[in-house]
Amino acid sequence: xxxxxxxxxxxxxxxxxxxxxxxxxxxxxxxxxxxxxxxxxxxxxxxxxxxxxxxxxxxxxxxxxxxxxxxxxxxxxxxxxxxxxxxxxxxxxxxxxxxxxxxxxxxxxxxxxxxxxxxxxxxxxxxxxxxxxxxxxxxxxxxxxxxxxxxxxxxxxxxxxxxxxxxxxxxxxxxxxxxxxxxxxxxxxxxxxxxxxxxxxxxxxxxxxxxxxxxxxxxxxxxxxxxxxxxxxxxxxxxxxxxxxxxxxxxxxxxxxxxxxxxxxxxxxxxxxxxxxxxxxxxxxxxxxxxxxxxxxx
Length: 298
Prior knowledge:
Function: Part of the twin-arginine translocation (Tat) system that transports large folded proteins containing a characteristic twin-arginine motif in their signal peptide across membranes.
Largest sheet: none
Subcellular location: Cell membrane; Membrane
Number of helices: 11
InterPro entries: TatC
GO molecular function: proton motive force dependent protein transmembrane transporter activity
Membrane topology: Multi-pass membrane protein
Helix content: over 70%
C-alpha cells in the first residue's frame, strides 16, 4: 500500500470510530440519570453514614414506627383534649424534622442553575458513551494497525491486550468499590473532628469519581510495563529483585502523584502496586522468553 492508501484507510477507520462514539454518547444521554445515580452512590453512602451521628441514638426507622403508632392511638380518641391535640402537633413536628434531617443532610449540592445539566449530566453521559464505545474504537484502531503487523506480532497483541484491559478494569473497580469507602470516611472524619458540616458539590465529586479510578486503572498496568522493559533488555528479572527498595520508593512517589493529597488513598494505591510489582517479576520469569519477543531487534 502507498502512503496515500494508508492515510485513506486511517480516515475511514477514524470516521467509523467517531460515528460509533457519537451513537454511544446519544444512547448514554437517555440513561444519564441512572449513570449519575451509580457514580454518586459512594458519596451518598458516606454522607448518610456520617450524618447518622446527628440523628437520635435510637434507630430512626424504629423511632418513626413508634411515632406513627402513638399518633394513630391519639387520633383514635373520641374526644381529644387540648393536651392531646398539643401532643399530636409536637409528634408530627418531630416526625417531620426526623424525615427532613435524614434526607437533606445526605445529599450533595449544586451551586448554579445550569450545573446539574452542563457540568454533571452532559459530562457523565459523554464519559459513559466513551466507555461504551471504547471496544468499537479500539477495534477500528486495531484494524488499521494490524494491517502493518506480522502474524507473530499480532499474536502478542492477542495475548497482552486482554491482560491490559483486565488490569485496567480491575484497578478501576478496586478504586470504586474498595478505595472510595475508606477514603471518604477518612476525609469526612476531619469534618467531624473540626465540627463543620460538609457540603459536597456534586460536580466536584463527579470529577473525582472519574479521575481516581482512571489513575488506579493506569497504575495497575505496572506488570505489563515491567514485562515490556524486561523484553527490550532495559531491566532483567534480577534487576527487579535487587532493586526492590528503589521500586518501593518509586511506587510511593507514583502513588502520591496519582492520588489526592491524603495518605489513605496513597496507601490504598501503594499496597496493590507492591503486589503487582511481584506479579510483574513473575510474568517476566514465566512468560515466553525475550528470544520470541516482538520487541527484539531484528
